[in-house]
Design brief:
The structure is a homodimer of 156-residue chains. With 156 residues, the first copy, chain A, is an alpha+beta fold. In chain A, the strands form two sheets. Chain A has a three-stranded antiparallel sheet with strand order 1-3-2. A three-stranded mixed sheet of chain A has the order 5-4-6. In chain A, a hairpin with a 5-residue loop joins strand 2 and strand 3. The mean pLDDT of chain A is 89. The interface between A and B is large, with 37 and 37 residues. Strand 6 of chain A pairs antiparallel with strand 6 of chain B, so a sheet runs across the interface. Chain B binds a DNA duplex (25 and 25 nucleotides) through helix 2 and helix 4.
Chain lengths: 156, 156
DNA sequence: TTCCCTGCAAAGGTTTTGCAATTAA
DNA sequence: TTAATTGCAAAACCTTTGCAGGGAA
């Protein structure tokens, strides 16, 4: 945790930005809720416990800045608000998502299934892939009363 | 074209809705720009030629209604506006998209690459797949000065 | 000092809603 | 007839921006 904050601090400083108390509080909220795909409003509510004086605009600016630094992934699941996801700094692409249409849960699959297709895209479609996004909508294990599958614990 | 409108008319009527002139004009615009992923504003501009008196709210309401009937797919590519895509009524899932980060073009891949993964999801992740979404971001053939690949003409 | 950063309030852009009038079935 | 539908304007939302004050190097 601390080392991850330290790393983010360095990323900020290397671009001339500062890790202010507000930014640090925001990052901590994101780290503590890493699985959750929080919206800006969600982050704002949570970060107010740590830094009650913070303004919503600051949260938006921080999330925007961290997205530009590729610390975060800004995402849109179609419910009208942007959501943010901490990025594994070693993985080139984002995770795949399992979105439950019943309870709204979003689980992540940490494997990358798309490598072979990206090769095909370059060769057959003349398309140079920089990133991808793969989401599945359906019914999650909670809503069909099955235990948590091992597969979802693999990488976290 | 006419038979597709007739079919949509029947879908509407079976749920107690009417195919008004405004709705028909909107559907025609969507059919004529099937490859284009139009925003509500785009549709509004185009539909005004056919029905100049139409209001933007009516376009929004029509798009929302058609999405509920699964005639359209409401989609969000992250630029702050919803975009709409006619749905093949015989295909269970949406298309895959190639989104160019340079010129903004969105091409479609008509094949479904994900069947084998969906089986894995049900078995290993206890996730019952209803739909999916696969988008690639990168540089399209136009922006890298290559001809249009045959692969993009396959199914249309 | 100097530049970055903040909170607040105002503005921006997209989408939804209330309402009285109109219209398709 | 009558329930659905429309256009307009206002409202609701999420997000961004302008600005004056504050703070770290």
């Amino acid at each position: 945790m601390e080392t991850r904050i330290e790393k983010i601090k360095q990323q900020l400083q290397s671009q001339g930005y500062k890790l202010t108390p507000q930014r640090e509080a925001t990052v901590r909220v994101l780290l503590e809720n890493e699985q959750d795909h929080l919206s800006a409003e969600d982050v704002f509510m949570l970060v107010k416990d740590k830094a009650p004086e913070i303004g919503l605009a600051t949260v938006y600016r921080t999330l925007e800045l961290l997205s530009e630094l590729h610390v975060l992934e800004k995402m849109n699941f179609g419910d009208g608000v942007a959501r943010y996801d901490l990025r594994d700094d070693n993985s080139r692409h984002h995770h795949h998502h399992l979105i439950c249409v019943q309870c709204g849960a979003v689980d992540e699959i940490m494997e990358d299934w798309l490598g072979p297709f990206e090769e095909r895209l370059e060769q057959e479609f003349y398309f140079q892939v920089l990133d991808h996004r793969l989401d599945f909508q359906g019914i999650c294990y909670r809503c069909s009363d099955r235990g948590k599958p091992d597969s979802l614990n693999k990488s976290h």
